Structures are given as structure tokens and as C-alpha cells.
Amino acid sequence: MIAEYFKLIRIKHWVKNGFVFVPILFAKNLFDYNSLLLVIKAFFVFGIASSAVYIFNDIIDVEIDRKHSVKKNRPIASGKISKLNGWIVVVIFIILLIISASYFRTDFNLTVLAYLLLNFFYSLYFKKIVLVDIFSIAGGFMLRVLAGAYVINVEVSSWLILTTLFISLFLGIIKRRSELAVQSGNVNTRKVLQNYSVTFLDQISAITAAGVIICYSLYSVSAKVLSNFHSGYFVYTTIFVIYGIFRYLFLAHFSNKGEDAAEIIFKDFPTFINIVLYFIIVIFIIYY
Hints:
- It contains 13 helices and no strands.
- The chain is mainly alpha-helical.
């Protein structure tokens, strides 16, 4: 039973909350003990918040999930955990978030609140509205980055904000494309998919992929990077970003993967190695 509760809160999806580390990495505070401790705490706060959102969504979509080939195995959809117990876990997590609020800055707490409200409204309404659903997914990633900046009181580069926007939109679009590609027969478990086509999603995924590459490339050669990092080598990290985008597109087009970003990160070896190498080289350039 305990294993089912771990499955319910989806700890592996906490990897998405790694976006809160972006500001501290590029603000050159990664090895500052107090700042790092704050960001780690922020990571767990978003972990609790995201788990509350996942459970809330599972409760709302329980009947729809039971028709899905994969989601039917989720603890609530399969009946291994009751809806009541799901609500109890959500309430416990919300209480934990309220208690933790006293340890953080007001702007950080407001960002967590905005994340919760955005995702609760997403579960109830936004995911049924074409394009709004994708922008809602992107909004969650944007809020994580802003929270990471607020918690240590640093500014985030405009180019990094734009890069985050495009990469989060890209992930949301690929998620929808994968869902559309693998839906079985005439059983449509997500109504908004009726408003999308693979061709349209391919077009806008190409636009957002280009946006990621362009924004990151411009950031890598910006005057701020050159002055802050005292190195012109940062531009070479762009190759890892480009490879990551291309690899993700490859998996979406030829393996119908992309619905679960966390699964790709942990199970696709080339993607995992690319991410590890990227962060090793970025840390080396910025700090050494």
C-alpha cells in the first residue's frame, strides 16, 4: 500500500521542479551554502505542491483515466487508493505548504500560490481549452524559475526567461502531440485533442524549438554573460541545447514519446548523458 502512495505522489516527476535551480546556477551562487539550502527547500516545496496538483487532477479525471491504456493503472483510477484518501493527502500537503510559508519570502510564497491556482484551474477548465492548455503547462515551468530567483533574491536574465518560456511551450506541445498520436481507437481521453492535429502540433513545435535555440544562443553571446562569466566559451554549450531539442523531437516523431518528460530524462540514455554533460560544462565555465 505504501508503494501505491509513492506512486500517487509521483516523486519521479519532481525532476520538473529542477527548474528552480536555474537562477542560482546562472547567478553564480550554486556553491553558496545559504543560497543553495534555500533553493533545495524551494525544490521540496514545489515537490509537495506539484504532488498535490497531480493527486487533485487524478481525482477529477478518475473516470476518464480508467479508459486510458496507461493511466488506468494509476492508484486512484485502479481503485487501489480511494478518492477520499486522495483528498486527505491533498489536504495534508496544503497544510504543509501553509506551514512552510513562514520560512520564505512573500514573493516566493505568492509564486507557489500562483502555481497551485494555475494548476487547479488547469485541472478544472484550462486543459479543455485549445492552446490555453499548452500555455498553462508552460506557465508552471515559468513560475518554477521565477520562484527559484525570488527565494534567493536575484534577477533572472530576460533571455533566460524567454528560453524557459519557449522550452516549456515546446514540452507542452510535444506532450499533446504524443497524446494525440497514441490515443487508442475512438476513445478520446482528453477532449481538447479534438481541436488539434499532428500537422498543426508539428508546426508549432518547430516554432518553439527554434525559439529555444535562438533565445539560448543569443543569451550565450550576450554582453551580460561575457561580463558575468568572464569567458567567451559559454557559446559552446549551445550544442547541447540543440542536441537535446533534436533528440526530443526524434523520440516524439519516431517512438511517440514525449507525453512524460520525466520518463524520457531517466530512461533515454542519450538524453540523460546530454543533460549531465551540459551541466558539468556549464558549471565548469561559470565557476572555474
